[in-house]
Amino acid sequence: MNSILLIGRVLFAFIFVTSGLSHLAKVDAMAGYAKFKKVPAAKFSVLVSGALMALGGLSIILGVYADLGALVIAILLFVMALKMHDFWTQTDAQAKQTEMISFFKNISMAGGALIIFAIAATEGSDYGWTLTDSLWQLAK
């Protein structure tokens, strides 16, 4: 079962590592879109979110304080869903649908990250091979 849990963590978190690296590699393009979405300090926000996504994803994959990494990813996804995928402000039907899909993808992945957080942060839980113990040891 440990192998399956590790594979699940890798499959879940790989998108955050690649997206985070993409944010860092394409800062100007990403900052342009962030400006369009009225993100304050767009370039800085892209750099910070890219670093947090990449590090959070690696944390989950490697099991280095995976509880903290999962919590960071969950918070990022929730904030990004609200700020970047504001389907409720769209007037064009196609844009509204696209933003709604992205919004709910982010929200559902935030839910998955919270599940990983809950499992990793629970005292005595086994969620596959890890490099470190969890940061938190919450009672069952």
What does this molecule look like?
The structure is a single chain. The protein has 5 helices and no strands. Helix 2 (27-36) packs across helix 3. The model has no long low-confidence stretch (mean pLDDT 95). The longest helix has 29 residues, at 93-121. It is mainly alpha-helical and 140 residues long.
Q: Would you count the extended β strands for me?
A: 0
Taking pLDDT < 50 over at least 5 consecutive residues as the criterion, the unreliable ranges are none
Q: Which bin fits the share of residues in helices?
A: over 70%
Q: How many structural units, i.e. domains?
A: 1
The biggest sheet, with number of strands, parallel, antiparallel or mixed sense and barrel status, is: none
Number of helices: 5
Mean of all residue-level pLDDT scores: 95
Q: Compute the CA-based radius of gyration.
A: 16 Å
Name the beta content range.
Answer: under 5%
Spell the H/E element sequence. HHHHH
Shape: elongated
Category from helices, strands and their pairing: mainly alpha
- State the separation between the terminal residues, measured CA to CA: 20 Å
Helices and strands in order:
Elements: H1 2-25, H2 27-36, H3 42-62, H4 66-84, H5 93-121
Helix pairs in contact: 1-3, 2-3, 3-4, 4-5
Summarize the structure.
The chain has 140 residues and is mainly alpha-helical. It contains five helices and no strands. The protein has one domain.
